[in-house]
Amino acid sequence: MGAEEHGGGRQLLRFRTWARVPASGVIAVAVLAASGAFALSSGGILVGVLLLASASGVLCVAAAHAARALAALEHARPAAESEAPVPVPVAAPASSEPAPAAGWAIALHEAAGKEH
Question: What is the CA radius of gyration of the chain?
């Protein structure tokens, strides 16, 4: 974070942000990819493909989490730049009725709050 004085009691704050992926995620991708490559070179095509698919899945999840974190910062930026109070939407209380068995993913998404 850096602060610049612009006179008249005004300041400009600069923030540098970047995504951080935990070391455990990097290690998991490396181990899965190396195991998959070894399995493919040994002739275990199905096992190798499954391990490489798992490695790419872990990589995609890590990228999605990093993208959501940076998107949350970008979403909050207008409120930080504004001098006027910005209303913050309040999440509705969770429903007490159980979610349908087939729509559990939709129920989780709604419980977490709508993205847009």
Answer: 22
Domain segments of the chain as ranges: 2-87
pTM of the full predicted structure? 0.56
- Angle at which helices 45-81 and 23-42 cross, to 10°: 160
- Res 113: pLDDT: 60
Can you tell me the distance from the alpha carbon of 71 to that of 111, in angstroms, rounded to the nearest whole number? Answer: 19
Q: Which of the 8 DSSP states describes residue 9?
A: T
Copy the structure tokens of residue 115.
């993205």
Element (H, E) at 101: none
Residue 53 has pLDDT above 90, yes or no: yes
Contacts of 37 (CB under 8 A, 6+ apart): 48, 52
